[in-house]
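Q: What residues go here?
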């Protein structure tokens, strides 16, 4: 991935200057601390009114700006918070419905300036400037008064402890970053060291310097002057260029804006996918580890509680020998008629024989009750572990953010869910021998297959004793080959995918049952048959 540079900003401004000049800012949104959406109403090159969404991202990794199209807006998976941040409210107060007078780029800088004309509380005309500074880890969005040059607010305040040269906060004067000690190639006629091109000359980022390595100085001047701009993205999405000839294997783009929108939407989607997947895996693994630890402790406790019958036996033996034992004795020597041997029972010397017998009966009752409860909890933990293993498998095969979002919504506790219904992707639909087959790729899709999609005479497939997808076959009289193909699908979409052999069970949908309050995708079955795949 390459970073947004000053020459790309220059090309973007030249391409969109006509639309932005005279346009109005209709709506301002701030999904996160680091990205902003400005809905702008202006006129295109043909004089037709048009509304576009200007997206500004100040994430150090993805800093850029562009006008988003609908498909790339979906790729970015933008979620607008119900309560906007304070800086967003400030921008709305000063900029909504304001008119853009001009846009500008300070010489050689990666700063995009929008100058607006608006009115204050006293209906006096004022001039403001919104500066989007796209400078890696120093990226920021600053609103300041152009008449007084005083900052009104900024996305990130920068104190003296962070920057001695350039503090950023409300009421402070706005100043440009310190100038770099570089040359402008348009005014340079000497020799060029291509190894230090980005260090010695303006407009040349490291990636652009690598693309133009070894070209003549006249060629470099032509690029800086934006002669014959023909934007393109490499097919592997590793880099983009304003000049397609610099990329050997490329995908041509119709405009600079389209290039920026497509390129950064690809990486933002990829990053959000990886982040969400890692987050879900960590969360589920923590729950799984906790459940396994609890189950292990319960099994140890259960092994201790298995001595419950011994307490009952002691009580019975004491009561049966009341006639030849003495009260307040420390021990009792009796014959164990169940095991046909003499045993010695330790007693509480401060209690009578009957009280000791009652003590053992109470211990027996307590152990028996505890054992029953532990068995019940162990069964619940077993089901929880199986469910979480299925969720982990679903996460591992998810290849889109949409799939991961479904799994995330499934893991949210019921009391934390909002009333808004979560949309979800439909199960994978296939056709084999002119029969329909559905494959669920997560528990929500599995539940949809069983609860909504299936009919009584459909066939249901699942791998035996391991996490996997539900496979549903709709066919009146399926052939053995068709059943085997569906069993192969069940193995393919399971954690036994790489195993040499796996058992697959199948039965008709009418023999499935979903227990009350069961986890998503959990069913019990009967009349099943098994195939070894």
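A:
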């Amino acid at each position: 991935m390459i970073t947004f540079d000053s020459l790309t900003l220059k090309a973007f401004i030249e391409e969109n200057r006509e639309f932005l000049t005279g346009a109005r800012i209709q709506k301002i949104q701030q999904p996160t601390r680091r990205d902003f959406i400005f809905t702008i109403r202006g006129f295109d090159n043909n004089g037709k009114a048009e509304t576009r969404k200007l997206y500004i991202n100040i994430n150090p990794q993805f800093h850029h700006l562009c006008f988003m199209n609908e498909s790339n807006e979906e790729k970015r998976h933008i979620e607008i918070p119900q309560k906007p941040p304070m800086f967003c409210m400030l921008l709305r107060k000063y900029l909504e419905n304001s008119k853009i007078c001009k846009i500008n780029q300070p010489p050689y800088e990666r700063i995009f300036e929008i100058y607006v004309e608006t009115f204050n509380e006293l209906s006096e005309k004022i001039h403001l400037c919104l500066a989007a500074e796209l400078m890696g880890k120093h990226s920021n969005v600053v609103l300041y008064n152009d008449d007084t040059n005083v900052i009104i607010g900024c996305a990130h305040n920068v104190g003296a402890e962070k920057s001695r040269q350039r503090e950023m906060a409300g009421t402070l004067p706005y100043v440009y970053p310190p100038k770099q000690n570089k040359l402008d190639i348009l005014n340079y006629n000497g020799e060029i060291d291509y190894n230090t091109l980005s260090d010695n000359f303006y407009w040349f980022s490291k990636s652009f310097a690598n693309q133009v390595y070894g070209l003549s100085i006249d060629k470099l001047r032509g690029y800086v002057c934006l002669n014959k701009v023909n934007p393109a993205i490499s097919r592997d999405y590793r880099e983009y260029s304003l000049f397609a000839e610099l990329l050997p294997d490329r995908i041509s783009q119709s405009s600079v804006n389209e290039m920026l929108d497509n390129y950064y939407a690809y990486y933002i989607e990829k990053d959000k996918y990886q982040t969400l997947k890692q987050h879900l895996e960590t969360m589920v693994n923590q729950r799984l580890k906790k459940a396994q630890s609890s189950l292990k402790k319960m099994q140890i406790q259960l092994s201790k509680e298995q001595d419950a019958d011994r307490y009952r036996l002691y009580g019975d033996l004491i009561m049966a020998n009341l006639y030849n034992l003495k009260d307040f004795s420390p021990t009792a020597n009796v014959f164990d008629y169940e095991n046909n041997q003499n045993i010695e029972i330790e007693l509480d010397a401060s209690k009578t024989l009957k009280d000791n017998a009652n003590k053992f009966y109470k211990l027996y009752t307590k152990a028996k009750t505890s054992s029953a409860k532990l068995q019940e909890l162990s069964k619940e933990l077993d089901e929880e572990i199986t469910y979480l293993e299925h969720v982990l498998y679903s996460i591992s095969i998810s290849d889109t953010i949409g799939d991961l979002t479904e799994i995330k919504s499934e893991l949210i506790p019921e009391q934390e869910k909002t009333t808004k219904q979560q949309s979800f992707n439909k199960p994978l639909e296939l056709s084999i021998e002119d029969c329909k087959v559905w494959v669920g790729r997560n528990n929500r899709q599995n539940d949809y297959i069983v609860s909504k999609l299936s009919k009584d005479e459909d066939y249901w497939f699942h791998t035996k004793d391991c996490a996997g997808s539900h496979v549903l076959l709709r066919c009146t009289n399926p052939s053995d080959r068709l059943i085997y193909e569906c069993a192969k699908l069940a193995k393919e979409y399971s954690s036994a995918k790489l195993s040499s052999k796996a058992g697959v069970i199948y039965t008709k949908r009418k023999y499935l049952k979903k227990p009350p309050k069961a986890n998503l995708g959990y069913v019990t079955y009967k009349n099943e048959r098994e195939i070894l795949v």
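A: Context that may help when evaluating the design: The CA atoms of residues 248 and 397 lie 34 Å apart. The radius of gyration is 36 Å.
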